[in-house]
Write a structure and sequence with these properties.
The chain is mainly beta and 354 residues long. The chain has a single domain (2-353), classed as Beta Barrel (Porin), CATH 2.40.160. The chain has helices spanning 2-19, 76-80; strands at residues 53-70, 72-73, 85-102, 107-124, 130-132, 135-137, 142-150, 153-163, 167-177, 210-221, 224-233, 243-244, 248-260, 263-274, 278-279, 300-312, 321-353. The radius of gyration is 22 Å and the shape is elongated.
Length: 354
């Protein structure tokens, strides 16, 4: 399924390229950079001319709510039949710093660092009382798991298969380097996981080198731009703890319009598919404390709609600076096992090309 979807997007990109073959002018330094309509969430949209640099910062927040089983909501009591605690909410904040440089007019290198902060609330079943790790627990007992730190580092090389004033067809290949810790532990006084490793989604990285191929088509003419893209993450290795996350495919299509000077807006639809987690962390003794501790509750499919705004500064000392914001809501989500549903995401970005 993973490779079939990737091939489908590749065919779409090639077909769009043949439609746009009337544009053969060589792309200059301003191509796809002035009046750039790329949504804030999209990391790769074009290659840079030789010796051109771009630096950027993004902040993303993802909010998750009450758990779902498959694509349906699940009652709290149904969760408590298998788990000691319910997890009604979770939030992840991500800070991303990225640099890109044109090595040639068709070849661009990229590096991205990120910093993660994740928190999850846990509640006990009303009227339930017992001891856990020597601590009395009842319906009034709550806990918040928190982790924060450097995530995995992304390295990419982009190649412009096609590059002219209106069209770019870009292939990219890179790797995710495991700089994010998979040894995040709870505090000694925690009711769950005291001084022991926290569940998978509370860790800061995958713990493995992951490969990230992709392909992007962008067409821009006058005030209008559109794009289709597929980005994959292939995880062939098991980390030192004993598990690996599933392979992942992210596809997106967006349409942008420049309304006035450097002000533009975008509409984007995104699909994400992730296979199941393979293996488990044997140090998690209480495998069914709460849903994130169960390795069967990972992977699934989601489709999300997004709206964005951007402004490209064109004059003065802030020329070539660009700011953008994008907000998204889920259209469809189907999760393996029981997982917290996605409520919303939003992201803000700043970039500077020189």
């Amino acid at each position: 399924m993973f490779f079939k979807q990737l091939c489908l997007v590749f065919v779409l990109c090639i077909s769009h390229w043949f439609v746009a073959q009337e544009d053969t002018t060589t792309c200059d330094v301003s191509c796809h950079c002035i009046r750039n309509l790329t949504p804030a969430s999209v990391m790769i949209s074009h290659v840079h001319p030789k010796n051109e640099w771009m630096v950027s910062y993004r902040f993303m927040q993802m909010g998750m709510g009450t758990p779902m089983q498959g694509s349906n909501s699940i009652a709290d009591l149904a969760i408590y039949t298998s788990y000691i605690a319910n997890t009604p909410s979770m939030q992840m904040d991500m800070h991303m710093v990225m640099g890109m440089v044109g090595l040639t007019d068709r070849l661009t290198a990229m590096v991205m660092f990120n910093y993660l902060a994740t928190k999850m609330d846990m509640h006990m079943l009303a009227g339930h009382n017992h001891m856990m790790n020597g601590i009395p627990m009842s319906s009034a007992s709550t806990m918040e798991m928190n982790t924060q730190g450097l995530g995995d580092t992304k390295l990419q090389v982009l190649y412009g298969i096609v590059k002219n004033e209106r069209t770019q067809l870009v292939a990219n290949f890179g790797a995710s380097i495991p700089t994010g810790s998979i040894q995040q532990k709870g505090n000694a006084e925690d009711m769950f996981y005291p001084t022991s490793r926290l569940p998978y989604m509370m860790q800061l990285g995958s713990g493995t080198i992951d490969f990230q191929p992709g392909i992007t088509f962008v067409y821009q003419k006058d005030k209008l731009a559109y794009s289709v893209q597929a980005q994959g993450t292939i995880r062939p290795f098991v980390n030192s703890v004993g598990y690996r996350y599933g392979n992942e495919l992210n596809t997106t299509a967006w349409l942008g319009y420049n309304w006035w000077k450097g002000f533009g807006s975008t509409i984007r639809i995104e699909g994400n598919w992730m296979s199941a987690l393979d293996g488990s962390d044997k140090s998690i003794d209480y495998a069914f404390n709460e849903i994130s501790a169960n390795p069967n509750n990972y992977g699934g499919t989601r489709v999300q709609g997004n709206l964005g705004l951007s402004y490209q500064f064109e004059e003065g000392f802030i020329a070539n600076h660009r700011i953008a914001i994008e907000a998204g809501l889920p259209i469809y989500q189907h999760w393996k096992g029981i997982q917290n549903k996605l409520n919303q995401t939003w992201i803000a970005s700043w970039s500077y090309s020189f």
